[in-house]
Amino acid sequence: MSAVLTHIALHVFDLDACITFYQDYAGLKLIHQRENKAGGEVVWLAEEGREQEFILVLLPGGLGRKQLDTDFSHLGFALPSRAAVDAIAEQADLDGILAWATREEPYPVGYYCGLRDPDGNFVEFSYGQPLGPGADAAKLN
């Protein structure tokens, strides 16, 4: 039997700021929210239509992440076009959270930019990788 990755859970310093970031930048929807036994909230975010496939769980009580610029650990989101990557990068630059300007790298990386979420995690937005939107275009290159 194979295991299926269903979620990633992150303790975050500012729960509300992280919810807003993932709603505004990644288009995630709040699909579940409850108080946990330890006295904090548990929040589930998911892409529209994928609520039973993969979720991002956010939990309060994190210390904030001091991720080094040389640490490329990140969450990755695929976008439907290069223009969508450009739009995210432009807004992130205005918001002061652009970590990696847009760039093109050879297959399978594609076109991408990186942001820092309110907790300090890198978040990549890409087009042309062999998964998600743009996967078919990546095969042609």
Give, in order, the helices and strands. EHEEEEHEEEH
What is the CA-CA span between the terminal residues? 34 Å
CATH class of the largest domain: Alpha Beta
Question: What is the molecular shape?
Answer: globular
- Could you give the order of strands across the largest sheet? 1-4-3-2
Q: Helix tally? A: 3
What share of the residues lie within helices? 10-25%
CATH topology of the largest domain: 2,3-Dihydroxybiphenyl 1,2-Dioxygenase, domain 1
Average per-residue pLDDT, rounded, comes to: 93
Radius of gyration: 16 Å
Summing up helix and strand content along with how strands pair, one would put the structural category as alpha/beta
Domain count: 2
Quantity of strands, as a count: 8
Uncertain segments are: none
What is the annotated CATH architecture of the largest domain?
Answer: Roll
The amount of beta strand, in percent, is 35-45%
Q: Report the sheet with the most strands, covering strand number, pairing sense and barrel closure.
A: 4 strands, mixed
In brief:
By secondary structure, the protein is an alpha/beta fold. The protein folds into two domains: about 5-60, 2,3-Dihydroxybiphenyl 1,2-Dioxygenase, domain 1 (Roll), CATH 3.10.180.10; about 75-140, 2,3-Dihydroxybiphenyl 1,2-Dioxygenase, domain 1 (Roll). It has helices at about 15-25, 80-95, 135-140; strands at about 5-10, 30-35, 40-45, 55-60, 75-80, 100-105, 110-115, 120-125.
Name its key features.
alpha/beta, single chain, globular, 2,3-Dihydroxybiphenyl 1,2-Dioxygenase, domain 1, 141 residues, 8 strands, four-stranded mixed beta sheet
